[in-house]
Design brief:
By secondary structure, this protein is mainly β. It has two helices and eight strands, in the order ααββββββββ. An eight-stranded antiparallel beta barrel has the order 1-2-3-4-5-6-7-8. A hairpin with a 6-residue loop joins strand 7 and strand 8.
Length: about 170
Amino acid sequence: MVNTFASPRRIAALIVCLFVLVGCNPHMYDEVSAVQDAKRAEIVGSWVCTDRTEVTLLADGKAVINLLDGQEFDFDDRWRLSGTGEWELTNERAGWNDGQHVQLTLTARTSSATRTPDPAERLDPSTEHEPAPETYTWTFELQRDDKKQLMLYFFFGDPDSRSTYVLERKQP
C-alpha cells in the first residue's frame, strides 16, 4: 500500500497553507512598476497627506516641509517635522524600488510635533521613543495612478508590512 499523504505535492500544498496562515505574503517584496519618465516639472508644487502634512517642492530645489512623519521605523517614534530643506529627483537606486526617486532633506528644522496615536495602535508605555532629529532625509518612491498622475510615497513602520505614506498633489 502506497502512502499518498506524504507525497511531494501534498507537502508543498501544506507548506503554502502554513505560509498563508502565519501571514507570510509571497508577493510582499514585489516591486511596483518603476517610474522612469518623471520630469522635475511634475515634482514641483505642493504635496499633501493626512493630518495637515504638506510638502512644497520648489523649482530651484528648495523645499518647505510641514508636519512630515518619519519613514520606516522612524514613523513609530511619532515625531513630525517642519522646516526647510532641499530636494532632488534622482535615478540612483535609493529606495526600495527601481526607477526614479525624490530625495528630500530637511536642513533647518523650525518645529517638531508628536503624532497622536491611532486608536487601534498598540502602544508599549515602557518603550522610549527617539526625539525628533534636527535634520532628516526621506526617500520617496514614485508611482503613477490610473490617470498617469504622479504620487510620492514612502514605507512606514515595519518594512515587512509595506504600509505606505502617500503624498498627492495638492488640489487648487
